Amino acid sequence: MDPQAQSLNNLIQKQHAGILAMLSERGKNIFFPKRGILSQSAQARGKNINASIGEAVDDDGTSMHLPAFDALINVPVNNVFPYAPSYGKKELRDTWKDFLVRKNASLKDMLFSTPVATCGVTHGISLSGYMFVNEGDTVVLSDLYWENYSLILGNGYGADIRTFELFSDGGFNIQSFARTLSSVKQEKIILLLNFPNNPAGYTLRSDEVDPVVHEINRLALTGKKIVVLIDDAYFGLVYEDYVFKESIFTRLAGLHENVLAVKLDGPTKEDYVWGFRVGFITYGIKNGTQELYEALENKTGGAVRGNISNISHLTQSLLQSVYSHEGYLEEKQKKYAILKSRYSLLKETLSKSPYPDYLDPLPFNSGYFMCLRLRKGLNAEQARLHLLEKYSTGVIVFGDVIRLAFSSVPLAKIPELVENLYKACVDLC
C-alpha cells in the first residue's frame, strides 16, 4: 500500500474507526497524490519560467486554444481550457454546499463534507462502488430501480444486488424494507435509496421517513456497518404537500456512528443541464470531524484523478456563473411549474373513466416518471410494441410495469398519451 494511502487510513482510524471497515479494498488503497507531478507543479506555480505544466500555453500566458472557440464561448479563457482540479472547482463546490443547506434547513448546524465534483450522478454511483463495494458485498435497493445501479454496482463491482418491494397498500413497503435489510448477514450493508424514485416517481411521505430511519438505526445498534447511498438526482421535484421535502441525507448524516450517508446529486435534473455532466458526492456521519471529511474527500479526489482525471472545466464555470445570476431561482421555478402541471394533469386524467378499467397506476408524487400495470392480464411488452406501431407512442417497460415519462410530454399531449394507452389495451383484449 502506498504510504499516502496508509497515512489517510491511519487518520480515518483515529478520527472514526468504523469508516475504515466500510471502505472497499480499493477505497482503502486510494489517495490523492500530494507528491510527484502535482506537488512539483504546485511549487512551480508563479515562477518566471514554468516548464512543469502538462498543458500548452500561449506566449501571453493564457491557455493555448483555437480562436474559433472565442466566438462560441463567452467565458474567460482560463475558466474554460485548463484542467479543472480533480476535486472540482473550489468555488462551485462551496456554492453547492451552501445550496445543500439552503434546500435542507436541517443541515444548518450539521458538520458534513464539502461536495466533490463528479461527472454526473452516474459517475458518483460508480465512485461509490469504487470506494465502498468489494466483490460479494450486498447492495440493497428497491425492486423498482434504475438499471444503471445493477450495471455499475453488480456487473462493474461484483456486488450481490438484493431488492425489497417498494410499495404496499398505496405507500412505501416498510415491512419488506426491514425484512430485506435484516436478511443480510454480512457485517457491512450498502443500502441505496432513490427519492424521487426512477422509475416510479415516488418520494417518501413525511410520515414514512421515521420508520425508514428507525430500521436503519436498529441495524446500526446491532453493530452493522451501513453505507447509505442516497441518489438525489431528482431532488426538489416534488408535487404534493404531504411529501418529505428535504433529502433523507438530513436524517441519516448524524444518525449513528455505524451509518455513513453518501449524498449523490447535481444540477443534471435540478437545473436541467443533462449534457453538462456535473454532479457531486457528499459525506455525513455522526461525530464526523473536519479531518475525517477531508480524508474522504482526498480519497474521492484520488479516485476521480485515477479514473477520469477531472470534470469539465467549462460546464463547472458556466454553472457557477448562472448560480450567481439574480434571475436563477425565478427561471428554475418556471421550469418546475411546467413539470408540476404535467404531473397534475396526468394524475387527473388517469383517474377518469374508463381508464381505471385497464390502467392501474402505482403511487407517484414527484420526479419525471410514473409507473402503471395493465389490468385484464394484458402483457406490457405487447402493449408497448402496439403503441409504437399503431399509435406512434413510445413508453418504457420493466417486466410487467410500464413507465411514462411525463417530463418529456407537452401538457397538451398528456390526455392523448393516456387515451392511446387505453386504446392499445382495448385492441389487445
If you compute it from the alpha carbons, what radius of gyration comes out, rounded to the nearest whole angstrom?
23 Å
- CATH class categorisation of the largest domain: Alpha Beta
CATH superfamily heading of the largest domain: Type I PLP-dependent aspartate aminotransferase-like (Major domain)
Structural class, from secondary structure content? alpha/beta
Count of domains: 2
How many beta-strand elements?
Answer: 13
Low-confidence stretches: none
Average predicted confidence as pLDDT: 94
Distance between the termini: 64 Å
**Content of β-strand:** 5-15%
Number of helices: 16
How do the strands and helices of this protein lay out in sequence?
Blueprint: H1 3-15, H2 17-22, H3 25-29, H4 36-44, H5 90-103, E1 116-118, H6 120-132, E2 138-142, H7 148-156, E3 160-164, E4 167-168, E5 171-172, H8 174-182, E6 188-194, H9 206-221, E7 225-231, H10 249-252, E8 259-265, H11 267-270, E9 279-284, H12 290-305, H13 313-323, H14 328-351, E10 359-361, E11 369-374, H15 380-391, E12 396-398, E13 401-405, H16 414-428
Parallel strand pairs: 2-3, 2-6, 6-7, 7-8
Antiparallel strand pairs: 1-9, 4-5, 8-9, 10-11, 11-13, 12-13
Helix pairs in contact: 1-12, 6-7, 8-9, 15-16
